[in-house]
Amino acid sequence: MTEIDRSRAFAKDVRRIVVKVGTAVVTGKGGRLALGRLGAICEQLAELNSDGFEVILVSSGAVGLGRQRLRYRQLVNSSFADLQKPQMELDGKACAGVGQSSLMAYYETMFDQLDVTVAQMLVTDSSFKDNDFRKQLSETVKSMLKMRVIPVFNENDAISTRRAPYKDSTGIFWDNDSLAALLSLELNADLLILLSDVEGLYTGPPSDPTSKLIHTFIKEKHQDEITFGEKSRLGRGGMTAKVKAAVSAAYGGIPVIITSGFAAENIGKVLKGLRVGTLFHKDAHLWAPVVDTTSRDMAVAARESSRQLQALSSEDRKQILLDIANALEANEKIIKAENDLDVAAAQEAGYEESLVARLVMKPGKISSLAASVRQLAEMEDPIGRVLKKTEVADGLILEKTSSPIGVLLIVFESRPDALVQIASLAIRSGNGLLLKGGKEARQSNAILHKVITDAIPKTVGGKLIGLVTTREEIPDLLKLDDVIDLVIPRGSNKLVSQIKNSTKIPVLGHADGICHVYVDKSCKLDMAKRIVSDAKLDYPAACNAMETLLVHKDLEHNGFLNDLIYVLQTKGVTLYGGPRASAKLKIPETKSFHHEYSSKACTVEIVEDVHGAIDHIHQHGSAHTDCIVTEDSEVAEIFLRQVDSAAVFHNASTRFCDGFRFGLGAEVGISTSRIHARGPVGVEGLLTTRWIMRGKGQVVDGDNGIVYTHKDLSVLERTEIEENGF
């Protein structure tokens, strides 16, 4: 299931919430109240109450708390001789009566400190058999919620008519988990949260290292696969009871989350749509496949769909891209909403500012992405272009044509807009695609993937573009060299190196963006200021942003260097210097020239001349994009010819190194590799070649009776070829 489905399940329009706190959460060691943990939960509920949510609390713990108090009383009143005898088993009903008053006293004290009023609501199973009781219960609770009172429910075990209320599982409800489910249905709640002592529902006992957390419970899939461990050490039912209650409420129309009550702020995280715990929802089977799809299945499906795509006419493939552009604009609000959730989660998690900046989809971003997709659609169809045509022998014609590579696996970090660019390029080039985005952009990637695949016609199928949702799937995919044809990692050198060392599949590496701007002694100062400022500040987190400013030594003496530094500092750029610049400018010395800041910071160094700049770039750069600012054409040519980078500019900002700005429509990344494709990789970088031969019955027969002409023929457009019968 995707994160967008989870947030849609309950994060919007939720007002009335039932929260159930289990015994293992309420009590700590020795059966005493876990004051800190319970206090944190009360604070969360009080905050929700003040924010306008209607909160209903169902709390276990009375029996356990009462048992602890009665054991203490039993110990105090016993003689030494009494203690040598077998201890009498305490009556559960008595424990419930004693513990309930203590539990409620704590809630009243804690919530009173938070300026919240609570009300004790003790119910029994038999009460719900009375329709008048149910009606009155609903009216009373409604009245309390209107006055911002938090009702605190518990089963009144002390007067329950069941034989052993903590063991008997018959009746309308049988424990506080099922009571919470019943109340959520009776009181028309929008969400039920069951707090436990574990993160959620696992495939096996949580203590088993092979057990995995189930993020979304699908009854048809999981009910026969789960192995439950022991019941709760303190309460009655443990996870078995919680799952039974959750399924009951979920299929009655109430979304349910089972999550840990030990983790601070989990209730708030649930309401933000973040993936915590296990979600139960009546429509869960529509969001995720009942049968698991293996990595191989996904790759094979992408290849089969790509062949269907290639079989379409050029106009039909163009129309798919136009439909995607329209769909992006039509869904802009929901895309922005999901992106906002990702950004909020990243900020809460304390991610670096540069990562959050890459994550944000700013106003106008969707329109810009749609424009780039339309630009791709209007480009000449790249598939099947005749690149070379040769007459091999009389009547034997050979053509070298452009062809899709096959299935691409692209791993990228942070930037959700990259998904749109990559997907549209894959469609234009006729390739199948598997995408793995960063976890920090999970919701953005999910909605963008859905919008795009929904726009692909059924004749091709949405499986043309597969979205890999977990890091654990990557190792399996990297082993599929028989069905995946090219891997493109977009990220750090560490990511690229890890992938190269883990696969036999060809890797098109996108390394660090250590981009340089060299300002020569013959520059125009105003031009240099504009270029340096733009290269660093237009988008500091981009891989084509300037990370090192190199300055000719003569500019140190004529004041130009100080002017350049002033421009950067007044715009908030933090400067670090090489040995020469740090001494001259009195700025901190950089620890390494090979550093990608991806923020409003850069390194400055003074060099002897253009040759010194070139040597510096070759020693410390990443062969990405480098620029010279000069009016000396000879110096410029030396720089352009000798700097061995994917893109080398004269008097232009490094920020121009971009597939869209190059007129490629979009890019899957900027390659610093030296094989196949280099620089911004657009459609052409995702193509290979194939050979097509047309003959009239010729055979080799030991090369007897055939005269090879190997004559170059003019390359005609495909329409002309077809018209002329070639």
Oligomer: single chain
The overall pLDDT, averaged over residues, is 86
What's the end-to-end separation, in Å? 51 Å
Strand adjacency order, main sheet: 3-4-2-1-5-7-8-6
Radius of gyration: 34 Å
> Globular, elongated, flat, extended or rod-shaped: what is the shape?
globular
Give the low-pLDDT segments. Answer: 1-5, 231-236, 717-726
Number of continuous helical runs: 27
Protein name: Delta-1-pyrroline-5-carboxylate synthase
EC number: 2.7.2.11, 1.2.1.41
Function: P5CS plays a key role in proline biosynthesis, leading to osmoregulation in plants.
GO molecular function: ATP binding; glutamate 5-kinase activity; glutamate-5-semialdehyde dehydrogenase activity
Concise structural overview:
With 726 residues, the chain is an alpha/beta fold.
Account of the 3D structure:
- The protein is an alpha/beta fold and 726 residues long.
- Helices cover 40% and strands 18% of the residues.
- The protein contains 27 helices and 24 strands.
- The strands form 5 sheets. Strands 3-4-2-1-5-7-8-6 form an 8-stranded mixed beta sheet, sandwiched between helices. Strands 17-18-16-15-19-20 form a 6-stranded parallel beta sheet, with helices on both faces. Strands 23-10-9-24 form a 4-stranded antiparallel beta sheet, with no helix packed on it.
- 46% of the residues are buried.
